[in-house]
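Field: COMPLEX_INPUT
Field: COMPONENT_COUNT = two
Field: RESIDUE_TOTAL = 522
Field: MODE = joint
Values follow.
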Amino acid sequence: MAEAAMLVLASLVLIMAIILWKSLPALKLSMIIRIPGSGYYLGREGGILNAILGSLQLVLGATLLALIIALPGVIFLHSYLRKKSLLAESIRFTLDVLWGIPSIVYGAFGFLLMITFHLRASLLAGILTVALVELPILSRALDETMKLVPSELKEATYSLGASRWQTATRVVLRQTFPGLVTAVLMAVGRGLGDAAAVLFTAGYTDKITTSLLQPVATLPLAIFFQLNSPFPAVQQRAYASAAILTLLILIISLVSRSLSRRLSRHKIL
Amino acid sequence: METRSRLVVKNLNVYYGKNQALKNINLHIPENSITVIIGPSGCGKTTLLKSLNRLLDEQDGVRVEGQVLVDGQDIYRPEVDVTLIRKRMGLLSQKPQVLPLSIYDNVAFGPRLLGIKARPVLDGLVEKYLRLAGLWDEVRQRLQEPASRLSIGQQQRLCLARGLAVEPEVILGDEPTSALDPQSSRNVEVQLLSLKQNYTIVLVTHILRQARRLADYVAFLYFGELVEFGPASEVLTSPRDPRTRAYITGEIS
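Field: COMPLEX_OUTPUT
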């Protein structure tokens, strides 16, 4: 058991080490503060600021959208439906199936939507598609954390004369806040790292995206395209992009952890 | 003895699935006194208590028949707003269940539900009800701390203050001292005794000595049946029913 745990740790260290090693020649400050230099599509000079910003724009929009849908949905599931009702169980089953669908399928679905609505590959289309990918993850993770709320806590709140909505928003959300942050984090991680969903829908660009209707660059696709290049210099930049993506996820995870700790001081038990 | 009663249970039957938990309960709960419901575990004491503020609604697979009248109004009629009913009754649960908020916000929760927002008014209410629950002096310096940092005995008195802040007419207690140490239990009991002039109190307990200390009236439940109800002095000393006698003398528990 201890060996297995060590293996998990070792694999993380190994992956990080190899990526850093391969990316070292290309890892310069310009990578994160500049867009690709002119002349080369993927850039032998300049940086991948377009993809860094693009990934953040995309994942921010998608997570926000997914949260706006998931949160009321999960509150409904928990506070308004009986625990084992047919509707509640069907919703959970559907979410589990949606979770398992590969993101390339969502990508294809998003592509189909774009064709139907005559939309070009754009930030908007990317946001919609990634939101679809994130929705089941976010919903089920929120669902699981809300299941941990003691029924006595809800009873205590109801017995003060609070309605279901008041109980959910003023007490249950407070109690589950750390879980909520974790759930959002899982969704952000998935959204940041997904290449297949944005391949057809978000497109790619050398520039910084300033409108919802422009195509947007993303880090996974930056890695994908750069690795495809025959030039070793560009391949090194792919590894640098991978290191930056990993670092980004690490930073987001650390920040949300400390945030969740600070905001959960009232949590009971 | 004639007593006024605004809480009346009529022909109440409660079923959990196919099991009948309460069988045709009829009860007039006297005002401004403490009514204690006693009986062995699993005899329906908590179910009866939770039927009084419709907390049973929140459990799956429960069916309620019959009536619970508050001031003559049947609270189980479909047009009744359940949140209004619950605001008229404060509940103390077995384990104190503080809300994941500060001490202050726990007490202010009920008043805020009523739409009170002005800080000075809330400050006054928080102090008033913490005093009423006998907790003010212990927490006045730390009102913004998480309620979960209080000792379990203090938490139960905080729950009492929080329940009182809704300005209920009835206080329901489901073995409210069972998780507390003797000193904390004593504190809670003292508060309950001092509150009975102004409130109607219904307590569930399985501790007979507690019933002796607190009860003005005693209801004995056995396997979902209301076996006996009357003034504490009668039921606890010279019960009429052999089952009550067996319970009180400790032959059955």
